[in-house]
C-alpha cells in the first residue's frame, strides 16, 4: 500500500486540499482517490521544481469537501492486528443454548507454509529408517560408516575415538561376515518353496447370514383418465354409504338377511352375470341373421309406388312366434309408447270351447326369435294396455273376468295386482282395458269393459285394486222378470270401448248387440248418445287421433263404419267381404286407417286419396285358413303388426303411398302438425254433411 | 325371503343357458366363448386351442377398445364390438366382469 504509515499518531497538515487524509472509515471507498492524492503529494514533495508544471487531474467521482472538512485531522494507529481477521465470530454454546461471541479472535496470519522432511537423527522414525537402510547400505557405505564413526566420537574425545575406531573395524568385520553368510544362503531355484506356500490354508468359510428374501410382486398399472374417474366414483360411493350408515339405525335382522343374500349371490355369480351380455349378443346375432329384414325396415321404400297412383303395398318384415304359444291365438296387441321397438302380445283364445291357459309376451323388434318377457297365465288373455307414461305397467283383462296389472320391472312372473271375486271382478270375459290419467290422489287407474255389462274403473291403491262401477250398460227398454217379480234390466254386453283423446270424461262403448253408446264418466246410468252401428257385435271402436269428432267402428257383420259423433248416421261405410277383426287409425294421418279380416287380409284405406275403396288389400299370412285378429300401427316407425289366430305376429312395412302427407303448395312450407290432419278430415266430412243437412 | 331369491337366481341361470343355446342354434354361428375379466375362458363351444387363442387375442382388443372409448369420455363405456372379416364375423359384448364372444358366418 502506498499509504505512508508511521508508528504513533500521524499528524500532517499540508497546505493544498488535495493532500488531505481521510478517515479510515472512508478508506475503502476512497482508496483510489487517496492513493492518487498521496502519490501526487509525494511526487510534489519530492520534485517540486519540475512537477509544478503538471496539472492536477481530479477524478470525476472525487468527493467534494469543504475547506473546513479538508483541514480536518484524522489520527491513524498502527497495530499488530490482522486486518483480515474477522472481528465478530459467534459460536453456539450448548451450555447456555445460545450464540455467544468469541472473546478473542485468532490474529495469526499465515503467509507461507512448507512441509519439511527432515528428521532428528535420534527420533524413533530416524532410527527405524536407519535400521531399514542399515543392512544393504553397510556394504556400499562401509567407508562412509567408518568415516562417520570417527566423526561422531569427535566430540567424545580421543580415548573413545580409539575404542570407537576399533569398534568401527569390528563392525566392519561383522558386516563382512554377514555379507558372507548371505552369499552362502543363495536359494535353490529348483527345489525352493516359499514358506508361505507350505502352510495349510484353511478353507474360507462364509460367515454371513442369509435371510429369506422379502416377498416380491410385480406391479404395473396405467393411469388413464377413466381409471382415475373410476377410483373417484368408488370413493364417492363409499362416502355416500358412510353417510347413509351414519343416518340409519342399524337393525340386526336386516344384517343377517343381507349376509344370507350375499352368500347366495357369490355362489351363482358365474353364469347369471353373463345374462345381460348374452342378451346383447343374441340381438347382434339376430341382426346378422335377419340383416336384410333390418335393412328393409330401415331403408326400403317401394319405388314402384310412384307408378301406382292410388295403391300401396305392405312389405313383410319380421315374424314373431313363440313355441309355447303355438296353439293360442293373438287376442291383443299393444305398442309401448316409451320404447318404440317393444310391443306386447296377449295370447288366449276366442273360442268358447277351447278355453285354457294364456300368455303375455313382449317382443322387441331387435330380436324376433325370442320374446323379451314371458308371463304365462292361467286364463286366456283377451285384452291388454300398456301405460302411456310408465312403460313397465301393463293392465290385462282375462277371459275368466279377472283383471291384473303386471310390473315388468319385477322379477316375479305374477302380477302385482289381481282382481278377485271379492274385489269386484267381472263375471264375464273382459274385452277391453285402458289406462287413464292418474286420479287426484296420484293413483294409477284403468278402466275395463266386459260382457257382464259393466264398465269398471280400477284404482291401484297401495297393495290393492279398488274397483268402482262407472256405468252399467242396460238394454234400453228391455226388462226381464227377476226373482220375486222385480224388474231387472237386462245388461248389454260391452265388447269394446275407447276414450276420447282430449275430452277426458267422454268415451264410447261398443256392445254385442251392435250398438255404440257414447257415455260420460260423470253419468253412471244414462248414455249421452246411442248409435245403431252394426248388426253384430262391435269388435272395435276407436276415436280418431287428430279429429276430435270422428271415430271408427268395425264389426263381424263385414263392415267398417266411420262416424261423426254429433251425427247419428255413419259418414262412411265400407264392406270388406269378411268378418272384420280389428281396425286402427294411423298415428301419422287422420285419413288413414287399416282393418284386418278373417280371410287373412289387411285393408288399408286413405280417405283423402280414395273415399270408396281400400288403397291396399293384401293377404299377409301364408295359409288361407288363418284369421287375422288384431292390428296396431307403430307410433313412430312406418310399420304395422298383425296378429293371427295361430299365435303369430307379423310385422309389415307400409309403402310410401300409404303414408302420404298432404302435398305442399308451391312456395309454401309443408304445413305440419295435427291441425293439417284435422283440416283434411273436416274437408271430407263437410262434403258429406252438407248434402245430409240439405236432406235432413 | 332367501329361498325366493335363490329360486329367482336359479331361474335366471336357466334363462341364460337357454339364451346361449338359442344363439348357438342360430344360422351360421360357429362358436360361443365366455371369457372372464382376466382373459381366461370359462365356457366355450369350440375346441381348446382355438378357444385359448381367441380369448387371449380378443381380450387385448377389447381392453384397448374400451380404454379408447373411456379415455375420450370416462362416463361412456363400450357396449359391443363387431369385427367383420372376409370369412366371418366376430361379435364381442363386454361386461364389467365378463365378455362374450360369438363367431358367426352370416352368409351361411
3D structure, described in words:
Chain B: Keywords: Cytoplasm, Cytoskeleton, Dynein, Microtubule, Motor protein, Transport. Chain B: Belongs to the GAMAD family. Chain B: GO terms for molecular function: dynein intermediate chain binding. Chain B: It is found in: Cytoplasm, Cytoskeleton. The complex is a heterodimer of chains A (696) and B (108). Helix content of chain A is 25%, strand content 27%. Chain A is α+β, with helices and mostly antiparallel strands and 696 residues long. In chain A, the strands form 9 sheets. A 4-stranded antiparallel sheet of chain A has the order 3-32-31-30, covered by helices on one side. A 4-stranded antiparallel sheet of chain A has the order 4-5-6-7, with no helix packed on it. The longest helix of chain A is centred in the N-terminal third of the chain and has 27 residues, at 158-184. In chain A, 30% of the residues are buried. The model of chain A is unreliable at 1-45, 147-169, 252-268, 664-672 and 692-696 (pLDDT under 50). In chain B, 45% of the residues lie in helices and 27% in strands. Chain B has 2 helices and 5 strands; from the N terminus they run αββαβββ. Chain B has helices spanning 2-25, 48-72, and strands at residues 29-36, 41-44, 81-84, 89-94, 98-104. A 5-stranded antiparallel sheet of chain B has the order 2-1-5-4-3, sandwiched between helices. The radius of gyration of chain B is 16 Å and the shape is globular. Chain B starts with a helix and ends with a strand. The model of chain B has no long low-confidence stretch (mean pLDDT 85). Chain A binds chain B through residues 222, 224-226, 228-230, 257, 260-261, 264-265, 268, 270-282, 284-286, 288-289, 291, 369-370, 411-412, and chain B through 1-2, 5-6, 8-10, 12-13, 15-17, 19-20, 22-23, 26-29, 32, 34, 42-43, 67, 70-71, 74-75, 79-80, 82, 89, 91, 93-100, 102, 104, 106.
Amino acid at each position: 500500500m502506498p499509504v505512508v504509515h508511521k508508528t504513533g499518531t500521524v499528524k500532517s497538515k499540508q497546505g493544498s486540499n488535495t493532500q488531505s487524509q481521510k478517515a479510515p472509515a472512508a478508506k475503502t471507498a476512497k482508496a483510489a482517490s487517496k492513493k492518487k492524492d498521496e502519490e501526487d503529494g509525494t511526487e510534489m514533495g519530492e520534485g517540486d521544481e519540475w512537477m509544478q508544471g503538471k496539472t492536477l487531474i481530479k477524478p470525476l467521482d472525487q468527493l467534494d469537501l469543504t475547506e473546513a472538512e479538508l483541514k480536518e485531522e484524522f489520527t491513524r494507529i498502527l497495530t499488530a492486528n490482522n486486518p483480515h481477521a474477522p472481528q465478530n465470530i459467534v459460536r453456539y454454546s450448548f451450555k447456555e443454548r445460545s450464540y455467544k461471541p468469541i472473546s478473542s479472535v485468532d490474529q495469526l496470519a499465515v503467509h507461507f507454509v512448507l512441509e519439511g522432511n527432515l528428521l532428528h537423527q535420534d527420533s524413533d522414525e530416524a532410527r527405524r529408517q536407519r535400521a531399514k537402510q542399515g543392512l544393504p547400505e553397510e556394504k556400499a557405505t562401509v567407508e562412509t560408516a567408518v568415516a562417520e564413526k570417527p566423526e561422531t566420537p569427535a566430540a567424545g574425545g580421543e580415548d573413545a575415538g580409539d575404542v570407537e575406531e576399533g569398534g568401527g573395524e569390528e563392525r566392519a568385520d561383522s558386516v563382512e561376515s554377514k555379507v558372507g553368510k548371505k552369499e552362502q544362503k543363495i536359494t535353490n531355484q529348483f527345489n525352493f518353496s516359499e514358506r508361505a506356500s507350505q502352510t495349510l490354508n484353511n478353507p474360507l468359510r462364509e460367515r454371513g447370514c442369509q435371510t429369506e428374501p422379502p416377498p416380491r410382486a410385480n406391479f404395473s398399472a396405467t393411469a388413464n383418465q377413466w381409471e382415475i374417474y373410476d377410483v373417484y366414483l368408488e370413493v364417492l360411493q363409499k362416502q355416500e354409504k358412510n353417510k347413509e350408515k351414519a343416518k340409519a339405525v342399524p337393525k340386526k335382522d336386516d344384517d343377517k338377511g343381507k349376509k344370507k343374500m350375499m352368500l347366495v349371490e357369490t355362489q351363482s355369480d358365474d353364469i347369471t352375470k353373463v345374462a345381460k351380455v348374452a342378451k346383447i349378443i343374441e340381438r347382434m346375432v339376430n341382426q346378422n341373421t335377419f340383416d336384410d329384414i333390418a335393412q328393409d325396415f330401415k331403408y326400403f321404400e317401394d319405388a314402384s309406388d310412384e307408378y301406382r297412383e292410388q295403391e300401396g303395398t305392405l312389405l313383410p318384415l319380421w315374424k314373431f312366434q313363440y313355441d309355447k304359444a303355438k296353439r293360442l291365438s293373438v287376442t291383443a296387441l299393444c305398442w309401448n309408447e316409451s320404447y318404440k321397438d317393444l310391443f306386447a302380445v296377449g295370447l288366449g283364445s276366442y273360442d268358447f270351447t277351447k278355453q285354457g291357459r294364456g300368455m303375455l309376451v313382449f317382443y322387441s323388434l331387435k330380436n324376433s326369435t325370442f320374446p323379451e318377457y314371458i308371463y304365462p297365465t292361467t286364463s286366456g288373455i283377451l285384452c291388454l294396455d300398456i301405460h302411456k307414461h310408465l312403460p313397465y305397467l301393463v293392465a290385462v283383462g282375462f277371459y275368466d273376468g279377472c283383471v291384473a296389472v303386471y310390473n315388468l320391472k319385477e322379477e316375479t312372473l305374477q302380477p302385482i295386482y289381481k282382481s278377485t271375486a271379492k274385489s269386484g271382478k267381472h263375471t264375464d270375459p273382459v274385452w277391453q282395458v285402458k289406462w287413464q290419467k292418474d286420479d287426484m290422489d296420484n293413483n294409477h287407474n284403468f278402466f275395463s269393459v266386459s260382457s257382464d255389462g259393466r264398465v269398471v274403473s280400477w284404482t291401484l291403491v297401495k297393495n290393492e285394486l279398488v274397483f268402482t262401477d262407472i256405468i252399467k250398460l242396460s238394454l234400453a227398454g228391455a226388462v226381464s222378470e227377476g226373482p220375486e217379480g222385480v224388474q231387472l234390466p237386462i245388461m248389454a254386453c260391452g265388447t269394446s270401448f275407447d276414450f276420447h283423446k282430449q275430452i277426458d270424461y267422454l268415451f264410447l262403448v261398443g256392445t254385442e248387440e251392435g250398438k255404440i253408446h257414447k257415455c260420460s264418466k260423470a253419468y253412471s246410468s244414462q248414455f249421452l248418445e246411442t248409435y245403431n252401428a252394426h248388426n253384430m257385435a262391435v269388435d272395435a271402436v276407436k276415436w280418431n287421433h287428430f279429429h276430435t269428432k270422428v271415430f271408427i267402428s268395425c264389426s263381424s257383420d263385414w263392415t267398417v263404419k266411420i262416424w261423426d259423433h254429433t251425427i247419428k248416421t255413419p259418414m262412411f261405410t265400407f264392406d270388406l267381404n269378411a268378418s272384420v277383426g280389428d281396425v286402427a287409425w294411423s298415428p301419422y294421418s287422420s285419413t288413414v286407417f287399416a282393418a284386418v279380416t278373417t280371410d287373412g287380409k289387411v285393408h288399408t284405406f286413405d280417405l283423402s286419396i280414395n273415399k270408396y275403396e281400400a288403397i291396399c288389400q293384401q293377404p299377409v299370412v301364408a295359409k288361407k285358413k288363418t284369421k287375422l285378429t288384431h292390428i296396431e300401427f307403430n307410433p313412430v316407425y312406418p310399420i304395422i303388426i298383425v296378429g293371427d289366430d295361430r299365435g303369430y305376429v307379423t310385422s309389415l312395412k307400409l309403402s310410401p303411398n300409404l303414408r302420404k302427407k298432404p302435398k305442399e303448395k308451391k312456395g309454401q312450407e309443408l304445413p305440419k302438425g295435427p291441425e293439417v290432419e284435422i283440416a283434411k278430415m273436416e274437408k271430407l266430412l263437410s262434403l258429406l254433411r252438407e248434402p245430409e243437412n240439405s236432406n235432413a | 325371503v332367501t329361498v325366493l331369491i335363490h329360486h329367482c337366481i336359479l331361474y335366471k341361470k336357466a334363462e341364460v343357458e337357454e339364451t346361449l343355446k338359442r344363439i348357438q342354434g342360430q344360422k351360421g354361428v360357429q362358436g360361443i366363448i365366455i371369457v372372464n375379466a382376466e382373459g381366461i375362458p370359462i365356457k366355450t363351444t369350440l375346441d381348446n386351442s382355438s378357444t385359448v387363442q381367441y380369448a387371449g387375442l380378443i381380450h387385448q382388443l377389447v381392453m384397448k377398445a374400451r380404454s379408447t372409448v373411456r379415455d375420450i369420455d370416462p362416463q361412456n363405456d363400450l357396449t359391443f364390438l363387431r369385427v367383420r372379416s372376409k370369412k366371418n364375423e366376430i361379435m364381442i359384448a363386454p361386461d364389467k366382469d365378463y365378455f362374450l364372444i360369438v363367431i358367426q358366418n352370416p352368409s351361411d
